[in-house]
Amino acid sequence: MSAESVIPYDLVATKMNYWYNCIKNNRNIAAEEAKAEVEQEIKMMEENQDVLVYFSLLEFRHQLMLEELYPNTGAKIEKQYKKLKETRGTRDLNGMLEYYYYFFMGMYYFRQKELVFSLNCYRKAELEIEAIEGDSTEKAEFYFKMAEVYYHMKQTYFSMNYAKRAYTIYKKEPTYGNRRVHCQFVIAGNWLDNMHIEEALKHAKQALKDAEKFGENYLIRKALFNIGVCYTNLEESDKASEFYLKSLDILEPRNDEFAARALYLLAYTKARQNDLKSSKKFYEKSLKLARKNNIVETLETLKIVKGIYFNHDLDLVREAFKYFEEKKLYPDMEWYGICIGDVLTEQGEILGANEFYRRAITARKKIRRGDFLNEI
After folding, report:
1. C-alpha span between 66 and 37 (Å, rounded)
2. For labelling, which of 31, 253, 265, 289 has a CA lying 20 to 30 Å from the CA of 370?
């Protein structure tokens, strides 16, 4: 390669920054185009190991974006994950690169539902976040991801705090409308966990309006689903089913994991209404998708519907709770424990009801003690 054809590494790094901004905004077409340009230019770039590591990090983050928009590409993300781990093992990182490494790893573990590992990585990233100078949207991105993982751990105060910090920044950035919608999702979920269901519904409906304004199908679909969850908690089953079905009407971009989850909740909702014919129909559809894509969490929760409503087999339900315990999904243990206890009480199975009420109480104690956090 002649000296004239060598591209300065700082110019390539600048293009990588643009690529990363496209990724953060879920602008997948622009991100693919930027990635292709960087891949060509990096072949002619003057040698710089930090820029090469940055490239590997962005490759991984790019695949995480595709996983979010178009799930079921797990083989690719696993390949990128192993490559990045190898890169990390061969050299020391610091500052910005250290931040990105742990931040993106946190996102990966979150996708794998390994919440403790995810939060552990995010906390390590937070130690390096000051290396990201002059980019408030990157801090907003970090705050949002922290809010997301704390929400799933039911650490409501932490989650709401980070979500509001992220939303405050995103409000000032007109190109980050989709991220404002995601913040609304998390805020609504936290209100729901605090049993302020009407407040949660208000935020969920606002998220739907904003998603429709931006015209992003995957956001509209999720907003419709979240409204359905609010109505489930209000015990307005017909309205809940209406919004779950509307969410399933949005077929693109394809997301089998989402569809399996929505179909499961329809099966569960119909079973609670004693409409077992409809429930079995949705159950079979969900089961088919979950088996095809090995969606373990949905396969486990389907055991609850089958064990309580179809076969009257509490051992099946206990298998699902064993999975919740292993994965430390204490919020699911609490919610389902109470619901199952109520159903068994109505059926006159007092011993079984007491067992699952106790499971719910145990899970609630673990959440309040912050047992997730003690393992970090």
Report:
1. 18
2. 265
What is the Cα–Cα distance from 38 to 16, expressed in whole angstroms? 7
Burial annotation 19-36 (CB, 10 A radius, 16+ → b, else e): bbbbbbbbbbeebeebbe
Domain at 152-238, CATH class: mainly alpha
Could you give the CA distance from residue 99 to residue 171 in angstroms, rounded to a whole number? 24
Q: How far apart are CA 118 and CA 111, in angstroms?
A: 9
CA 310 to centroid of chain Cα atoms: 30
Cα distances (angstroms) measured from residue 9 to each of 51, 54, 55: 7, 11, 11
SS3 128: coil
- Helix, strand, or coil (residue 194): coil
DSSP 310: I
Does pTM surpass 0.85? no
Q: How far is CA 257 from CA 83, 152, 224, in A?
A: 26, 17, 16
Q: How many CB atoms lie within 10 A of CB 191?
A: 21
Least Cα distance to 103 among 142, 65, 130 occurs for: 142
Per-residue buried b or exposed e for 63-87, using 16+ beta carbons within 10 Å of the residue's own CB: bbbbbebebeeeeebeebbeebeeb
Q: How far is CA 358 from CA 309, 318, 352, in A?
A: 21, 13, 10
70 DSSP assignment: S
**185-196 per-position pLDDT tens digit:** 999 999 988 889
